[in-house]
Amino acid sequence: MSREAYAYFSPHLAIGNPKDYINLKGTSMIQKIKRFDKRQCLVSILPILGLPILGLIIVASGCDNQHYDERLQMRVQKLDSDLMNRWSTSGVVVTEVTPNGPADRAQLESGELISYVIAEYPIKTVSDFNDAMKNGLEEDNNFVLYLKDKLPLRVALRRRGDNVGLSVEGSGTVRVKEVQPGTPAANSDIQVGDIVEKIVDERKIYSLDDYKKVLAKLSKQQVTFRTTELIGVKIAAVSALGNLGDVRAIEPLIDIFKNSTELSLRKASISSLQRLVELSVLNDLFQQFQRANVNQLPADSIEPQHLEAAAILELLTVDRTENTATLEAPFGTQFRHRSEALYEKINEGQLAELVQAYIQITVEPEQEIRRACLAILGILKPVSAIDALVTVLDNSAEIPGIRFQAGLTLSQIGEPAVDALIAAFENGDTSTKDIAASALGGIGGTKARDRLIQALENTSEPAIQLTLVDAIAKIGDAPSLQALERQRAQYQADEDSGIRIFLDEVFKNLEQKSM
Q1: Neighbours of 52 (CB within 10 A)
Q2: Which of 25, 276, 343, 367 is the 20 to 30 Å CA partner of 95?
Q3: Which among 419, 390, 49 is positioned nearest to 235, based on CA atoms?
């Protein structure tokens, strides 16, 4: 995606003032309005990945694939076929900019994708208006109309040759003379008497031939380039950082997550950070391989939980018949050398502090990011996050799934979260009680168990009763089972009772587990 100095697409977008126009031989101008932000993202990513950016973006050199623009003094080249039209990507890539030339003064840089050429037609006469409207409709049946004291309006025809329904009058100051009912002009916010300032013609660049054709056509006009970031390449690079398991990836990913204006990049960065946290948990397993200096160990020598997690993450393969656990190449075999440094960095506390700040909906509106932050906290289990997690749990404006995940995270933190969960249960709404009770059941322990039993014996709300029964059953010790038996006895005569049916099912499941 791209960032614009100004935009023409919608009457709801504010328009900024053009700046830094460069005069080309006194007859035409160029403005570079969007920049490939290499500093913020790719510069920090690609040295780790070892990816040459131009190698990803452009095809091999060849006369048919590139063009040197004498007027602007820069070389452009067609996109690689692998990238053409992927992620809505099209245009030509700048591969060379002559120092101190027009393109250089417009701050165009090697590696940028030119996706639009935009021509502006100032309107001083009726003839100016008619010519500009004709040129604007020529390629794509639409143009952008600038009226004084109004936001830009896009006027579009369904078919070539349709009537726009707009006429003007005047010289020096050109005003709308007539708007014909039922025409595209009538469907826009155009009124008789509006002052017409200019018409803007946006030409999308699909190929090298498009670029040459459009620049030749608009050689006499004030021209603006819109350059677009190759967001798909960036996303791939950010995702790759998560898969590397390299401690050097953490700081660039944090920087992207905190500072990027691209939501897709922020999502990719927090997902990669989550992946790195998941990998760091397996440090003990990989240190077994590292200490033995091998890539294969007996499967029964590894903790089953770690073995399963590593297999799910496709870090190793398990052969039960041969009793072997073998690290997958190249990532698994390389990660055993990296795991310790990653583990130490992840557990310094910086990442836990960071994601804790982004679990509140008032801070981070994107729910996918909040979910990832909660998942990271569930793995790291920082006691410092308990109050913030309870705030999420108790927030009725939050979506139910996020509230539930906050409760799950508190359950993963364990015993230190019991008091906060008990307080949330006692003071919260029905949803808060439901989630807090379930979390307390997941933690277990005497304090959590006794409070759940007390609540069950004093609650008549059916939904909460069912949650409490389930939570107490999770604990499953003798006092818990005794409390459930007492509860079932109260409903012995009521065979249709929902709580009675649920208790019968609970005991049936407990009996099966004990067999």
Answers
A1: 9
A2: 25
A3: 49
Q: Which two tokens stand for residue 200?
A: 């803007």
- What is the distance between the alpha carbons of residues 279 and 291, in angstroms, rounded to a whole number? 18
What's the chain's length in residues? 515
**CA pair distance 370, 260, nearest whole angstrom:** 16
Tokens 């020096």 belong to 172
Tokens at 382, concatenated: 């920082």
Chain centroid to CA 191: how far?
41
Retrieve residue 185's tokens. Answer: 């002009």
- For the chain, helix (H) and strand (E) counts, in that order, are 21, 15
DSSP states of 185-228:
TTTSS--TTPEEEEEEEEEE--SHHHHHHHHHHTTTSEEEEEEE
- Write out pLDDT tens, residues 171-203: 999 999 999 998 888 888 899 999 999 999 988
* Cα gap 152→9, rounded to integer Å: 8
- Both tokens of 276, joined, read 């790195």
Cα–Cα dist 443/414, whole Å: 5
Beta-carbon contacts of residue 500 (< 8 Å; ≥ 6 apart): 488, 491, 492, 494
Residues 99 and 105: their CA atoms lie apart, in Å, by: 8
List Cβ neighbours of 443 (8 Å cut-off, separation of 6 or more).
411, 414, 415, 417, 418, 421
- 116 closest CA partner among 48, 40, 210: 210
Q: Which residues contact 457 (CB under 8 A, 6 or more apart)?
A: 483, 486, 487
At 226-261, the pLDDT tens digits run 876 556 667 777 888 888 889 999 999 999 999 988
Beta bridge partners of 77: 66, 93
Residues in Cβ contact with 250 at an 8 Å cutoff, skipping those fewer than 6 apart: 273, 276, 342, 345, 346, 351
Crossing angle (nearest 10°) for helices 250-259 and 231-244 = 140
Report residue 87 as tokens: 């992620």
Domain ranges of the chain: 3-228, 433-515
